[in-house]
Each structure stands twice: as C-alpha cells, then as structure tokens.
Amino acid sequence: MGRRKRNVFLLVLLCGIFFVNVWIASFRNTSETDVVRYDPTESIPLLLMGGFRGIAVDFLWARAIARHEEKKYYELLAVNNLIAKLQPNFPAVWIFQAWNMAYNIVSEWDAPQNKWKWISTGLNFAKKGAVKNPDSGDLFFELGYMYFHLFDQRFFPYASYYREQLKTELGEDNYEESLYWLRQSLVHKQKLRNTLAVERTIGHVLWRAALCFETEGDIDKALHYAESAVEEWNGYQMNHPEDVSINVEELIRIMKEKKAFLQGISKKNTW
Asked: Nearest Cα to 202, choosing from 177, 223, 224?
C-alpha cells in the first residue's frame, strides 16, 4: 500500500472511530423514556468503500471482540452496527448483535420496561438480519431460540411481562414465532447445529407452550400444544432411536398425562 493510500485509509479510519464514539455517547445518554436507537449514521459505509472495506471490517471485528471481553456493551453495540452495515450478508454479526442487545445490555437495566425495549430491539435486529440472509439456518435458529428462551419464566422473572408486551405491541405470540423460525432453520443450511438439536428444541417449545397456556387459563390452546408436543416427540423417537441424550419415553409419558388432564378440563368446560 502506497503512502497516499495509507494516509487516506488512516483518515477514513479516524472518521469511523469518531462516529463510533459519538454513537457510544448517544447510547449511554439514552434516558429511560427515550426510544431505543441502534442504527448508526449511514455515512460510514459510504466512506469505507472499495479496497478499504475489508481492512476496516477486520479492525472493527478486533475492536468488537475486545469490547465484548471488557464487557463494554454499549461500545460493542455501536461497533457491531457498523460491521452490519459493511458486512450485511454475514449472519454472525446479526446473531452477535442481537444477543448483545437482548442479553448483555438488558442486564444493565433494572426496570422491566427498559429491559423489554432492548429485548424487542434485539429481536427486530435479528429479523432484519434474516431478511438480509434468507438462507441462513443458523440465524433462523438463534432467532427462534430467543423467542423461546427470553420468554421463559424459569430463567427471567419478567418473562410474563415481555410476553404480554410482545402481544400488545406487535401482535405476536412468542411460541408461534419461535416455532416458525425454528422450522425455517430446518429447511436451510446450518453450520453451528445439527438437525437433532433443532428438532429437540421444537419439541421443547411445544411442551413449554402447553404449560404456559395452561397457566394463563387458555385450556384449548394448552391442549392443542400438548397434543402437538406428544406427536412431535413420538416422531422424534421413531426417527432417532439412537439418541440417548434425553429420556424421550419418560417425557412422552408425562406429556400424555398432561394431555389427558387437559382433555378432562376441556370436556367439563363444554358441559
């Protein structure tokens, strides 16, 4: 690289760093009532065109890894957004950023309202990545898993609040969304997980959905998901008898008992 090119690159890099820092400051100064913003300025990708783009992406990835290790999540947020602009067809950056928002940054807040803002922003970011990468089974799986895991009360005390907000604001049910994206991941190429892991996750989602709707008092939907869970796990046991990582037979027995219990309640409600 000639001296002139090196000088141009350094100038562009300095401009990029400046804008990164500006956006970091804007994220840190976001008040509890502000709308969450995550799109960096559109001018950065225009500056980093041509042969400089690859070098800039390498620099940003190195910085992102360092900020992640240092737990500087807001700076990581800004850096990851720049990478997504420069490398939109690389699923890993969308996965990395969605998890950063929905898990890392969420942990920085106490109020459920603020936590939910970042969770919804992370989910929307992942869905935007899915549009940019329509054949990424890995991205689809991560999105489906987030819709499952983030709304599980066993792990998150505000999960029921998140679920209600999702239904109110977006008209979505997290279990339906989870199943949609997980099933999409089965029909697209994956690098990070095998088919068995995805199929098991689908079975777990169906079962948790049945239990959730029972708790919410929607017996018809609970019964629907319990029946679907039994069918899913029966198919899994038939197709993968060699898998001993989970006691499928015992799980099916428990689900059949729940199914019979829900059928009994459903019949009483129709009398």
From this structure: 177
